[in-house]
Specification:
two-stranded antiparallel sheet; eight-stranded mixed β-sheet; 9 helices; alpha/beta; disordered N terminus
């Protein structure tokens, strides 16, 4: 599989010269109810900083502007917030609000609760979307498609809005439907393959399956802190 990416020794140069940075915008999905956490996940401290700070930094390190799609607390001191008037409908509502707010062709979405995502993965997914022209690009790990992070072409917005209005709020299903409407399929990038070749790396050498660890509850947070102390701190 040749995605036009260089070999590992040239990865830094490739990242630094990714074309047309203005055609992409980054968003943190932060409008969830955080019911399992018992408090707004965006403001939960992980490794000494709120998760919202960590998520925004992942986008910035990928060379992207960073806004917040939806918010349960006042997060405007961290970054600009795109209001999500239907956040109770789930993350698809935040995705639609973000896509409607930007003029960029591509929107890169990260969830608030995946603190181990490497910025190089976002760079690679966006690169893949640009050179393949796919409207929906997501990673897979261990053979399972991951809904986020996701790179979406704004052309998917009408289909996503229709799915939301019809009460079909599942993001992955809506992404698949949107790609089909455009005569495409969802592009799933096998994370392990490109980690093995060095095209995608983690700054602390975490294995790919840990990149997608979700911090949804206090127990999850405790486990994530343990991973951090063992592998990073």
């Amino acid at each position: 599989m040749n995605l036009g990416a260089p070999g590992p020794s040239h990865l830094g140069t490739w990242e630094a010269h990714t074309p047309n940075p203005s055609d992409a915008a980054g968003f943190v999905l932060a409008g969830g109810q955080s019911s399992r956490m018992g408090q707004d996940k965006a403001l939960v401290n992980f490794a000494g900083e709120p998760l919202i700070v960590r998520s925004l930094r992942i986008l910035h390190e990928a060379g992207l502007s960073a806004s917040i799609a939806g918010a349960r607390s006042n997060l405007s001191s961290f970054a600009s917030v795109v209001p999500d008037p239907a956040s109770e409908l789930g993350p698809l509502s935040g995705v639609c609000a973000a896509l409607a707010s930007t003029s960029a062709r591509y929107a890169v979405f990260v969830p608030i609760d995946q603190p181990f995502l490497p910025s190089s993965l976002l760079v690679f997914l966006l690169h893949h979307a640009r050179i393949t022209g796919r409207a929906v690009t997501i990673p897979s790990v261990s053979g399972f498609d991951q809904t986020f992070p996701a790179v979406l072409d704004r052309a998917v917005l009408p289909t996503l809005q229709s799915a939301l209005a019809a009460g079909r709020g599942g993001c992955l299903q809506a992404f698949q439907a949107a790609a089909t409407v455009l005569g495409q399929s969802v592009s799933c990038v096998p994370t392990e393959l490109f980690a093995q070749t060095g095209h995608v790396t983690h700054p602390h050498a975490l294995p790919p399956y840990q990149w997608f660890y979700n911090v949804n509850s206090p127990v999850d947070l405790e486990r994530a802190e343990a991973i951090y102390r063992r592998r990073i701190a």
